[in-house]
Design a protein that fits this description.
290 residues; Methyltransferase, Cobalt-precorrin-4 Transmethylase, Domain 2; five-stranded parallel β-sheet; five-stranded mixed β-sheet; 10 strands; 16% strand; elongated; binds S-adenosylmethionine
C-alpha cells in the first residue's frame, strides 16, 4: 500500500515588513497543523500576530535530518507542514534544502510559495542589464578563502549577488575590489524593507570609503549586487583618464570624479593621485625653467 502524504509547503516570510507576507502565505500558515521553523522563538510572534494555531517544530541547520524524519512522519499521517525560516525564503542561505529533498524522495508533494528573498529584492533595484546573475550567498569569513572564492568568479560576465554580515562588510567590499577589479558597479542594499533601508549604487572602488565615512552605514543586514565582468580594462585605466582630463584643464575634483565613474576606481584615491600628478608636473616645470 502506498502512503498518501500531505503536502509540504515552503513559505517565504517577510524580511522586515510584516505587510510583505502574502495572502496565500497567511492562508497556508493558518491552515496547516504544523509549522517547521528555523527558530521557533523567533517565529512564534509572527504566527501569533496572524492568529495561526499551528504547532511549531524546530528545523535548523543542526537538526535538519532529524527534523526531516519528523516532518515526513507528520506528512505520512496526513498532517500538512509549512516550512519557514527566520526571514525570507527557506533554503536560500537558510536551512530547508535537506527537508525538501527528503520530501521529494518520499514522493510527497512540495508546494513552494513565491515571496520575499533579499537577493531578488536587491537585484530588482540594481538596474544592471546583465541577462544573467549568479547567487553566491555568503562568502567565506576568512579573507584568504574569501579572495580565493572571488577569484573563481571574477571572470563571469553575469551580475553577482552576495549576502554579508555587518562586521565583515568593509573587508569583504575591499576584497571584492581587489579580486573583481575596477570597472564594476556595486549596489549596497542595506536593511531592505526596514526603517533604515539604504540603497547605494556606486563604483566598487568607492564602496569601502563610502561605508567607512559613517559607522551607521555598516550596521544591519546587507545584500550586495556587483555588476558582471566586462571586457578587460587595464589596471591603470583611472590614471590614464586622469592624465587625459587634467591635460584638458578640467578642475581636479571633476577630473577625479569622471575618471572614477568611467574606470570604476575609487574617487578619493584618484583625487589624491591627481594632486600628486599636478605637484610632479609643477616640479618638472620649475626644473626646466631653472
Ligand atoms: N533566506 C533569506 C532570503 O531569502 O533572503 C536569507 C537568509 S540569510 C541567513 C540572511 C542574510 O540575508 C543576511 O545576513 C543578509 O545578508 C541578507 N538579508 C536578509 N534580510 C535582509 C534585508 N532586510 N536587507 C538586506 N539583506 C538582507
Amino acid at each position: 500500500m502506498t502512503t498518501e502524504y500531505a503536502p509540504l509547503y515552503v513559505v517565504p516570510t517577510p524580511l522586515g515588513n510584516l505587510a510583505d507576507l502574502s495572502e496565500r502565505a497567511r492562508g497556508v500558515l493558518c491552515a496547516v497543523s504544523w509549522v517547521a521553523a528555523e527558530d521557533t522563538r523567533h517565529s512564534a510572534p509572527l504566527l501569533r500576530h496572524m492568529g495561526a494555531k499551528a504547532r511549531l517544530l524546530a528545523a535548523h541547520a543542526h537538526n535538519e535530518n532529524a527534523a526531516a524524519e519528523r516532518i515526513l512522519a507528520l506528512l505520512a499521517q496526513g498532517e500538512a507542514v509549512a516550512l519557514i525560516s527566520d526571514a525570507g525564503t527557506p533554503g536560500i542561505s537558510d536551512p530547508g534544502a535537506r527537508i525538501v529533498a527528503h520530501a521529494h524522495a518520499a514522493g510527497a508533494r512540495v508546494i513552494p510559495l513565491p515571496g520575499p528573498c533579499a537577493a531578488v529584492t536587491a537585484l530588482s533595484a540594481a538596474g544592471f542589464s546583465e541577462a544573467h546573475w549568479l547567487f553566491f550567498g555568503f562568502l567565506p569569513s576568512r579573507s584568504g578563502q574569501r579572495r580565493a572564492a572571488l577569484k573563481t568568479i571574477a571572470s563571469l560576465s553575469c551580475a553577482l549577488a552576495f549576502y554579508e554580515a555587518p562586521h565583515r562588510i568593509l573587508e569583504s567590499v575591499a576584497d571584492m575590489y581587489e579580486e573583481l577589479g575596477a570597472g564594476r558597479t556595486l549596489l549596497i542594499a542595506r536593511e531592505l524593507s526596514k526603517q533604515f533601508e539604504t540603497l547605494r549604487r556606486l563604483p566598487l572602488g568607492e564602496a569601502a570609503d563610502w561605508l567607512a565615512a559613517d559607522p551607521m552605514r555598516q550596521k544591519g543586514e546587507f545584500t550586495l549586487i556587483v555588476s558582471g565582468a566586462t571586457e578587460e580594462r587595464p589596471a591603470n585605466e583611472g590614471e590614464r583618464l586622469l592624465r587625459l582630463f587634467l591635460a584638458e584643464n578640467l578642475p581636479v575634483k571633476q577630473a577625479a570624479r569622471l575618471a572614477a565613474t568611467l574606470s570604476g576606481q575609487g574617487k578619493n584615491a584618484l583625487y589624491a593621485q591627481a594632486l600628486t600628478m599636478i605637484k610632479e608636473q609643477k616640479t618638472e616645470d620649475s626644473d626646466i625653467c631653472g
